[in-house]
Write a structure and sequence with these properties.
By secondary structure, the chain is an alpha+beta fold. The chain has two domains: about 5-160, ph1033 like domains (ph1033 like fold, Roll); about 190-320, no CATH class. It is built from twelve helices and eleven strands. The protein has helices spanning about 10-20, 35, 105-110, 135-145, 150-160, 165-185, 195-200, 205-215, 245, 260-265, 285-290, 305-320; strands spanning about 5, 20-25, 45-50, 55-60, 65-70, 85-95, 130-135, 230-235, 255, 270, 275-280. Helix 7 (about 195-200) crosses helix 8 (about 205-215).
Length: about 325
């Protein structure tokens, strides 16, 4: 279990009610923001302290990994300069009866504040430029102790998290988003019926897109399976993020078995330009072993075309669950 601190002054009501955290991928000037990038490290079972107007008002148990998601409609006019597509994490929040004011306890807390990415100033005041940041265990346990039994019970429940239910919620969000895009394509009279069908079928890694990927690829890059019936054309730049041209571009794809496709699409694995497999630090190693990815050695899957390298760069930058520090 890891511990996180989130400043929710602007979006507190929407996120607490909706049971999630949402951030843009980058700052308004298109620069990486470490406090948005931290979203990519969050893991089911982690604990989140919600800080609003000088107080810790709620504690949440994380119930999903990070995944791409459109800016919530309920934000309305909040964050007008934020990107339309950002990071989302499912969180089951519990509002606290005993809401502590960290500044009242800063003499105790100050020595536990990290030098980098601290959630508080040395004075005990909050730092408004921070959205999400990690909290080390000594500070987290001290906060839990100050809040009392409420926090202790929430922390205890987080260890019994139902990962299956969490995964269903994440998948449902992505399905709703992608079905909305499908509906937009289907209603676009400027796209021929044949092209509309090809674009929609491409979401499932089949049809014309898969045919074009097979002009470049001959087998699953990881497992070596070569029978086309057991393979999907997996988008490097996800279908949901791509233009219509990119959705059918064979160089925006790899041939992967369904389990490897799942890991790749959800950002648990990626590849560098040399062909070396990258495993996200939030991945569950025993599961990856059972799914055909040996964790006891370095895996190189071979070279990529220049076009594939271009799309893989997007995957590492915007899909892989890791933080570039």
């Amino acid at each position: 279990m890891r511990y996180w601190w989130v400043n929710q002054n602007q979006t507190f009501r929407q996120e607490i009610k909706g049971g999630y955290l949402w951030s843009p991928k980058r700052s308004a000037n298109d620069v990486r923001n470490p406090f948005y990038e931290f979203m990519r490290e969050v893991t089911p079972g982690d604990l989140v302290f919600s800080f609003v107007d000088t107080r810790i008002v709620a504690i949440g148990t994380v119930t999903s990994y990070c995944y791409e998601s459109p800016k919530p409609l309920e934000f309305g006019g909040v964050g007008l300069n934020w990107e339309k597509i950002g990071w989302r994490v499912r969180v089951n929040f519990t509002s606290l009866i005993h809401q502590i004011r960290p500044k009242d306890h800063i003499d105790l807390l100050r020595r536990m504040l990290p030098d980098r990415y601290s959630p508080l100033q040395k004075s005990g005041n909050g730092i408004q430029s921070i959205y999400l940041t990690a909290v080390l265990e000594p500070l987290a346990q001290t906060l839990i102790g100050l809040i009392g039994m409420e926090a202790t019970l929430i922390a205890g429940r987080s260890s019994a998290l139902n990962l299956e239910t969490a995964g269903q919620a994440q998948n449902a969000d992505l399905e709703v988003w992608e079905h909305h895009i499908e509906a937009t394509i289907e209603s676009n009279v400027n796209i021929s019926g044949t092209d509309r069908e090809a674009l929609i079928v491409a979401r499932r890694g089949q049809g014309l897109f898969k045919q074009r990927v097979m002009e470049i690829e001959s087998r699953c890059r990881v497992t070596g399976v070569s029978n086309p019936i057991h393979l999907r054309g997996s988008h490097c730049k996800p279908w949901r993020d791509s233009s219509n041209e990119e959705r059918l571009n064979g160089e925006n794809g790899l041939l992967l078995t369904p389990t490897i496709d799942h890991l790749f699409d959800r950002g648990f694995i990626s590849f560098d330009n040399s062909g070396e497999l990258i495993v996200s630090p939030v991945s569950h190693a025993p599961s990856l072993n059972r799914m055909g990815i040996p964790m006891d050695r370095v895996i190189n899957v071979g070279t990529f075309t220049d076009g594939q390298k271009h799309f893989l760069e997007y995957h590492r930058d915007s899909v892989l669950l890791r933080v570039a520090r």
